[in-house]
Fold these 4 entries.
Entry 1:
Amino acid sequence: MKTVFRMMALLLSFGILQSCSDDDKKMNVPSLEVTPANIAGVWKLSEWNNGTEVHEDVYCYIVFERRDMVFKMYQNVNSMYARCITGDFSIEKDEYEGYIISGTYDFQLFDDAWSHSYIVTELTADGSMVWVAQDDENNVCKYVRCDAVPEDIVNESEPIK
């Protein structure tokens, strides 16, 4: 009878251990404060439209410079050609929505603001951040930190003026 109880205790222990998933671990990753210093550097778009991975031929890199609050974006998202887009950005903290990032482009003739302001829902120390459009909760982008924009992309991108 003791053997049966030991086996049941052992099986119960294994069951408890198996019930902890990776999703539970991710929930415990603390989010950093969204500041220019914490987002400074190079970020690559890895997912958009609420979890769809970015196709391998499509890219968007954003380089944030904290000191001057400017960005440089290398992308081919809505173009067949590589483009370098520059501008400035701002971060504000809303009491209800959290940290909001918005920006303006240097090249637009009429409306130079980004098409959306984004709520930064996650900024983790392991190098990822998630943006949700303030006016469209289905517009979700995930960025991952990277070392640099690939040199071939920089070379083929001309800044828009």
Note: The two ends are 82 Å apart (CA to CA).
Entry 2:
Amino acid sequence: MAYLGKTRDFLLHLDASDETFQRAHVLRHSMTEAEKLLWAALKNRKLDGLKFRRQHPLHLYIADFYCHEKRLIIEVDGGIHNKSEIREHDENRTAEFDRLGITVIRFTNEQITQTIDKVLEEINSHIQSMEFPNSPSPSGEGVGG
């Protein structure tokens, strides 16, 4: 069997295109100061022992930070995200990820650069509150029950 380059796990990338992978590569090398600060706090399993990936190709999009184990995306939004058309795009993108069973949480650049500890507490709190896919529901029934 011939090796044709990197193989891509469908579940990890949800069939992202080659173009999306190329854009993600470029974005990894041009992160904002807020993204760099958050990445320093997330990389190497520093937060709750979870693996985060930066500028991760996922379906039609690139997630700023993605934890596959928790199916969690963390987005870092600059001022451009205040524009109505960008906000609408963000809402549609979040709805698409929700449809795929992936949670999105957002922080502004200012939140990260000014209160990184509070941001990390909020992320950790969100992670702790997430239900596991096969855990019993509050009514005591399992998934599909």
Note: Helices lie at 10-13, 18-28, 33-42, 84-99, 109-114, 116-129.
Entry 3:
Amino acid sequence: MAFYQNERLALFIDGANLYSAAKTVGVEIDYRKLLEEFRKRGRLLRAYYYTALVENDDYSPIRPLVDWLQYNGYNVITKSAREFTDRDGRRRVKGDMDVEITVDMMNLAAHIDHIVVFSGDGDLTRVVQAVKDKGVRVSVVSTVKSQPAMISDDLRRAADSFIDLTDLAKLIGRPPREGDHDDEDEYDDED
């Protein structure tokens, strides 16, 4: 990873996409460590976390994380998600955050030197190219160490550098806790 101490950094985390990639490769993200790691690598100006929330739920498994992130240095951007049941009878949540990420990246591009995007979503390819045209370096974090790869080939090619999530695992991950089981809803960020 090529980072420079005096460069102005911003993180853009597609919550559902990062969650899926991390789950696929068995990494549990420690968001405190993630901030600390990137603060060491430059002048971290902003850390955005994007997620869709089901507003009518009495309890949302993502709500405690969102609350923690808001109190601990993240700019959390949320919107209402659409809930549906897939053909296998599973509860699914649909909430694409691409427009929100795109707008914020374009707005911040004039004030930063390096953007780190935590997503593998190919829909972000064009905004990555656009901020690069403004002189901003872009690194993308996702993984190719899964079957299939969790990153769009177009997005990976558009970025200045690609960082595999598994290479960051020791720096930003936490060891699995005993008795952990995953009962969170699955998120689908496609429209």
Note: The two ends are 32 Å apart (CA to CA).
Entry 4:
Amino acid sequence: MFFVRTASSEDLPRVQEILRETWHNTYDTIYGREKVTEITDQWHSMKRLEDMRHEPNSEFLVADNGTTIGGMAYATQQDKTIKLHQLYVHPDFHGGKTGLHLMIEIENSFIDAEKIILEVAEENIKAIRFYEKYGFKKAGEVTDCGEDGSGLAAVVMEKQVVYAED
């Protein structure tokens, strides 16, 4: 059983490992191993992860079972919209409720948000199904997923925020 908490600097090496392994597991067949390595080296560098921890109007979470970190999520808020930049669960822990717990905590971290948006590769059917299961609907498409100039096409998904009851 994992519990969700705010990420610390000490968590970042494991978070980086989760991101690299999950990206290779998911995207090597879509983008190729070399492209995935290039992306993870840039997007998941230690400096970038540390910068994310200090970004204003953001939440950087990990799913921790006391022995290991099994997943992570990172989101920012602008106006009344949460942008979920990352939600990854290590492949060894797929099929549980870890992703759901991370999603719920992200939603509850931004108390005045009205909707949550994300981008996901159209070929990442497993992730799209996960998000659809929790109420996300396709809202558009982008040609530069993740960051300007990436050249990675993606589906934009969104849903209204529903806050968990105490």
Note: The helical segments are 12-31, 33-43, 46-53, 98-109, 125-133.
